[in-house]
Amino acid sequence: MYMLVENRTSSCLHLKRSPGIRSWSLFVDSLAWKLFYMAGCFFVAAQNLEQWEEAVFDKNKGTVCLKTFNLYKKILTFSKGGHEQVVAALNEIRDVNVEEETVRYFGKGYVVVLRFGTGFSHPLTQSAVLGCRSDVEAIAKLITSFLELDRLESQQDLSQSSETEASDADEPQDTY
User: Fold this and answer.
1) Contact at 8 Å (CB) between 113 and 98?
2) Which of 60, 59, 53 is nearest to 146 (CA)?
3) Looking at residue 153, what DSSP letter applies?
4) Model confidence, pTM
5) d(CA 83, CA 96)
6) pLDDT tens digit string along 122-165?
7) What is the dihedral of CA 132, 133, 138, 143, to 10 degrees?
């Protein structure tokens, strides 16, 4: 119906029109598309969200445990997945240093890398931190001092220098 006669008198004609079923269906359809769009935006944002990361250096157990938690995987697997974990022995760590990585479109990023005696290297985090190299270096120094790697390096330097001096003493001295 185009217009509905609400009130008709000899002095007044009141016509009224309400939204039809087609208008309501467009509203509901539009609302459904908006909800679908918002859900899609949420999933894209969750997929691109950085991971939660945790590093536990435990001297009692003699291990380092690097854990990551991904919200997107957690949602997709309905709480059955999303956790990844790497466990390594503390006594295998030989060095901790900061590496620079190129991050596409953003410039340079920095990450702490654990170097093991087996030649294997593993980053402390999966993604580099943009900008603040001093913050990353502070964490690397904290780990180095906690693991007492700076003491081990100084002891190795002393033992190497004493070995060199001893080997020099064994060689015959030529006098001219």
Assistant:
1) yes
2) 59
3) H
4) 0.61
5) 25
6) 998 888 888 788 888 999 999 998 888 887 566 565 555 555 55
7) 120
